[in-house]
């Protein structure tokens, strides 16, 4: 029986071995390098995992019931293991943990008895570095920077995107600003209308001038709109606000064909003691 096994071993050793390729990523917890041989039929069997491109070349050695790691390459210290019953069952797989880029290479699994090598198989291991750590850190920092900048811009231009504003104001101030801003590119010749909840005309701007004749008398001489159509700022200043000015105001931008291009609402809430209502209707 031993002579037959020896002859089989010689034939296997002399034949071409199929090379298996395993691909993993740097940082993966472990990989299993496969190797099988009926070592349970061999007296004093030893299995040695090696890499010929390293010095020393030993990755892992197991014989009888224990590991022999005195000649193990330092790159693999504490990172290799085999089953306790590997030689008894012929399951000679090598477990390699905490994968590194330097683990890339061709690993040989050699089975020997006290006289000679019975079989040798090879496994190629490719460790993909993936996205470099420094690049990952840089990407995270760039993302944080973009978030900070975009957040700051959104905060700065927040009134350009809102459809409705709430403006609280302590009573007794000289004026209040009713915000109306847009990012839309406005064409030439638009008409800007400010109206209140009672549909009274608060302010009208068209053709480059204020249309005071269309304004409700309650707001006469109390409104001012800066001409900033190109920047999208259509805000209205309301002078000498009183509790009667507490209202919901609508800012509408109309095209020459009277299509509504922009519409925003401003809820003005006057705070403080009430003043006697005026006689304006």
Automatic annotation (TrEMBL):
It is found in: Membrane. Residues 1-17 form the signal peptide. Residues 24-126, 178-267 form the Ig-like domain. InterPro entries: Ig-like_dom, Ig-like_dom_sf, Ig-like_fold, Ig_sub, Ig_V-set, IgSF_BTN/MOG. GO terms for cellular component: external side of plasma membrane. Keywords: Immunoglobulin domain, Membrane, Signal, Transmembrane, Transmembrane helix. GO terms for molecular function: signaling receptor binding. It comes from the Eukaryota. Its main location: membrane. GO terms for biological process: regulation of cytokine production; T cell receptor signaling pathway. The chain crosses the membrane at residues 134-157. PANTHER family: BUTYROPHILIN, ICOS LIGAND. This is Junctional adhesion molecule A. It comes from Fundulus heteroclitus (Killifish). The lineage of its organism: Eukaryota, Metazoa, Chordata, Craniata, Vertebrata.
């Amino acid at each position: 029986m031993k002579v037959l096994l020896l002859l089989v071993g010689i034939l296997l050793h002399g034949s071409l071995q199929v090379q298996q390729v395993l691909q993993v990523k740097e940082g993966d917890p472990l990989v299993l390098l496969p190797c099988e041989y009926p070592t349970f039929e061999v007296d004093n069997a030893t299995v040695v995992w090696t890499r010929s491109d390293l010095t020393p070349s030993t990755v892992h050695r197991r014989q009888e019931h224990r590991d022999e790691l005195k000649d193990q390459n330092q790159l693999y210290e504490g990172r290799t293991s085999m089953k306790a019953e590997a030689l008894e069952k012929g399951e000679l797989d090598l477990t390699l943990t905490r994968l590194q880029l330097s683990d890339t290479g061709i690993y040989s699994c050699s089975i020997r008895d006290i006289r000679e090598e019975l079989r040798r198989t090879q496994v190629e291991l490719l460790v993909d570095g993936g996205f470099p750590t420094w690049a990952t850190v840089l990407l995270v920092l760039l993302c944080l920077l973009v978030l900070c900048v975009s957040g700051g811009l959104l905060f700065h231009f927040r009134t350009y995107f809102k459809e409705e504003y709430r403006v609280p104001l302590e009573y007794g101030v000289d004026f209040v600003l009713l915000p109306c801003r847009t990012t839309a590119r406005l064409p030439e010749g638009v008409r800007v209308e400010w109206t209140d909840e009672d549909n009274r005309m608060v302010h009208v701007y068209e053709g480059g001038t204020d249309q005071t004749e269309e304004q409700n008398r309650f707001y006469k001489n109390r409104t001012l709109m800066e001409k900033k159509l190109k920047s999208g700022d259509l805000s209205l200043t309301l002078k000498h606000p009183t509790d009667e000015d507490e209202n919901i105001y609508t800012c509408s931008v109309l095209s020459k064909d009277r299509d509504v291009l922009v519409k925003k609402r401003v809820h003005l809430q006057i705070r403080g003691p009430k003043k006697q209502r005026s006689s304006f209707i």
